[in-house]
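Backbone-to-sequence.
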């Protein structure tokens, strides 16, 4: 009887600690994601701070993919913002290292593949003429893989639209076709429900802004 009582108390104690850790994790993630959602924080310094914090959360949690996903996302956004093209690859490498961990923890994840596509796209800016074909195809492949997993993910269509929007017409770009992709993304957003309060949900405002740029 004493053994049974001890086992029950031990189990209850473990459950209590686990719930406390889960609440602490979600609280920390919620705080950082709210900062990431604030457009005023979309600058190199703040994004780097957020990436570092997400990496620390990931190091503490070890089995959670989302901290490394967000760290990779913050780093790749910094790669796009970097004006010194000689530094872009190093920043993209940081993003790739983070997203590789997320990929290991959550294989065949469409959100992870979306960031992989972004990382490939960020490398094009270093030298569009020599890198466009290689990394453009890589970015498109990751978009395709993401769509196979979840065709309702609106971020897939935002990336497809961006590729068409920023690619010159002589190389296959089209503002008209880009607009269709952005409109499809917004349509998907109207029914999209994130898997949790801390799951990826970015992109709607970005799609709206890009549509406004198309005359």
């Amino acid at each position: 009887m004493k053994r049974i009582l001890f086992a029950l108390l031990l189990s209850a104690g473990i459950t209590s600690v686990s719930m406390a850790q889960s609440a602490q994790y979600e609280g920390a993630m919620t705080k950082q994601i709210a900062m990431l959602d604030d457009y005023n924080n979309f600058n190199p310094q703040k994004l780097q701070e957020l990436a570092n914090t997400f990496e620390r959360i990931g190091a503490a949690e070890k089995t959670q993919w989302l901290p490394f996903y967000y760290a990779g996302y913050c780093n790749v956004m910094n790669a796009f913002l970097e004006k010194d093209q000689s530094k872009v690859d190093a920043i993209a490498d940081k993003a790739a290292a983070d997203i590789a961990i997320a990929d290991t923890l959550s294989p065949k994840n469409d959100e992870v593949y979306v960031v992989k596509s972004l990382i490939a796209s960020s490398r094009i800016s270093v030298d569009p003429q020599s890198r466009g074909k290689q990394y453009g195809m890589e970015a498109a492949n990751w978009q395709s893989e993401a769509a196979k997993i979840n065709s309702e993910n609106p971020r897939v269509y935002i990336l497809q639209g961006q590729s068409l929007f920023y690619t010159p017409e002589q190389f296959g770009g089209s503002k008209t076709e880009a607009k269709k992709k952005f409109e499809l993304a917004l349509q998907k957003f109207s029914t999209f429900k994130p898997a949790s309060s801390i799951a990826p949900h970015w992109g709607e405002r970005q799609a709206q802004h890009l549509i406004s740029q198309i005359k």
